[in-house]
Amino acid sequence: MTEQMIVDVAKMFKKRVKDGLFDRDMTQRDLANAVGVTEAVLSLAINTYAINKQSREVRAKVRQLLDIQDI
């Protein structure tokens, strides 16, 4: 995967999360509470494509909660 592809996927994920929150009338704070992490940890996982274990786990939980299956 090229660096540009990673950046593109990160942007798509961020948009899908934003749209999912809007559709559910949720805030990022609500999502952080639902996932069981702080807002800062959630923000890092959503706004960057960090490859550390915690960010991957948070993104997996977000995908499950917001039913994001294709990213």
From TrEMBL:
Matching InterPro entries: Lambda_DNA-bd_dom_sf
GO molecular function: DNA binding
Protein name per UniProt: XRE family transcriptional regulator
Species, as recorded: Leuconostoc mesenteroides subsp. mesenteroides (strain ATCC 8293 / DSM 20343 / BCRC 11652 / CCM 1803 / JCM 6124 / NCDO 523 / NBRC 100496 / NCIMB 8023 / NCTC 12954 / NRRL B-1118 / 37Y)
